[in-house]
Specification:
This protein is an alpha+beta fold. The protein has 20 helices and 27 strands. It has 4 domains: 171 residues, 2-Layer Sandwich (Beta-Lactamase); 105 residues, Beta-Lactamase (2-Layer Sandwich); 152 residues, 2-Layer Sandwich (Beta-Lactamase); 221 residues, Phosphatase 2c, domain 1.
Amino acid sequence: MQDHAASVAATGSGTELLDSAVAHVVRETGASVAMLYLLPRNDTTLHLAVLTGVPGQLAYPWTRVPLSAPMPVADAVRLRCLIWLGSQEELARRYPRAALVLPYQFALAAAPIRTGTAERGGLVLLWPGSHPPQVTPAEREAVVRGCHGIGLLLHQAESSGYPVLPGALPRVLPPPERPEPDPAEAAEAAEFLQRLPGGSCALALDGTVTYLNDAAAALLGSRRDDVYGTLPWVSLPWLHDPSVEDHYRAAVISRQQTSFTVLRPPDHWLSFHLFPTATGISVRILPTTEPGPANLPAPALPPSSGVPSRATALYHLMHLAATLTEAVGTQDVIELAGDQVMPAFRIQTLVMMTSAEGRLRVEGGRGSHPSLMDRFDGAPLTSPTPAAHVLMTGIPDFYPTFGDLERAYPSARLRNAVAACAFLPLIVSGRPVGSLVLAYDRPHSFEPEERALLTSIAGLLAQALDRGRLYDTKDRLAHSLQAHLLPRSLPAIAGLDVAARYLPSTRGMGVGGDFYDLIRLDDTTAAAAIGDVQGHNENAAALMGQVRTAVHASAGAPPDEVLARTNRLLTDLDPGLFTSCLYAHLDLARNSACLATAGHPAPLMRQPDGQTEVLDLPPGLLLGIDPAAHYPTARIPLPPGAALALYTDGLVEAPGVDIDDASAELAAHFALALEQDMESVADTLVRYAKRATPGTDDIALLLINALPQDA
């Protein structure tokens, strides 16, 4: 491969070199499909750059693959090793997401492309389904040699100042060129096909009709010109069935013969036999009297199974795969599984179980009998129950009838609850996390293809469930931590109406570094503080607790001294995080307030007549930078009826929005709420923030209203 790269290096552009190199690897390895991914510098996503062997639309789901994705090419690049998958069953077990979209028979290799320590991308190769389950030494060597040569080309292009970058869409290489047939031989071949019984046609790799003889046109009930150059399932309405296109995809990807039978209205049954090659698909069309394949089983799920075609099922399952990435929490996973899986496979009941302290635990269910597993809730994992058995062994169990289940587990006690069921293990990285129970109200035959799809579903749900349980644990911890770090309630102080709000930045981040505090000093004085520690995670929350404690301990001293003491403490701790803080000393007897800020947004001041402004305070340095920093103070009047709004920048910051404009808008909302109590005003300002900001930062809000003397 290195010699091949050198031989073409002087004759073409970078893209042409790559195209030639990929074609060379395909010839050397005997693969039927190749997908070359590039990893641009400082990027974390693999981009599909070159594709050969299948049309571009079939590779659409994998045009971009994050390095963190559970996909063969991502693992190959990340782990710097060759990944080999010798069967569809192995793909379903190790990479359920990919298996859902490619439920066909083939062998797959994924290998990294790198030069020195630089990761350049990855190469994916597919072989026909007839390939043995093991890779041969010669194939492995050819793959490694090919990746080395491609890496050399990419390095040379980059060194010359013209790095090869992926385009918006992959370049699809044409199929191998066929020699032009002799006109006389072509005429004889066409005449030969006309003499054969039935009809003959040919499809390009993208599915379009490239040849159609008279007999095929007659059987299809259409003129040749109406079908030529079209996708048959588009130009012929009676072929507009997902299973037809699914057979075409199976032929293109697996390179194996497949057959199916379709009714051409009103009563003409036609049998289609597809014979794929590297350049296209030959199709024989024969009339038949039986509504089913003659000899070869079609790869799609048979209609008699009560399951929709694979293409239709995959439509639901692709939605499941996409939506599960957004699921947070165990209940989210269960709800999404019920919404997507149950209608796709006509399942009546779905139950999800996990293990906890050596026992089964029902997490939840959907359907007509969601409580059918409750009788097993808390059962030991060693108990003779099917849910415990599949969790411990990792082997799925399918029971087409209740009799089958009763014979395997006489003590299952599920009579009158299920007529058929499947028990699927939920396994993540070889570690069992639970069991998925699917139940049917009628006997149900589980065909091999359906079993493979359900196994893939279980793999997807297992990964989502594992993430959901982790989220639930972190969420409980976050709420507990935040509850202990922030005031449980604000103290009741005569002459003040107060309210506070705290909102974590986004769902899934229930803890952050924003804080507020209100401290009663004596009958006529109080202190208020608000601050923002850099970040919104556990480290920020821990430091926030220390800052709040330091401020609380110094409360009562002049504001500049409170901030100076806290600053010296933080610089001694050297946490590596900056903190902003605003401290206000409220003197209700003198109707005034003294404030100092350490790099914190200035508060809003609303006068008794409703006039509202952003206070102009002398600036102070953020806490934790300079131990000798000084914090100037400002004294303002706080007459009865006046109100202060102390807040963190998450309330006003948004991409592309000027901070002064956002603060003015917030002040306008504060002014309009003149007659409301502070709890209602807090709700108003939070609603404004949710509409105006993207929610990428924590929000803390503390409102203080000096009540009129007669209040």
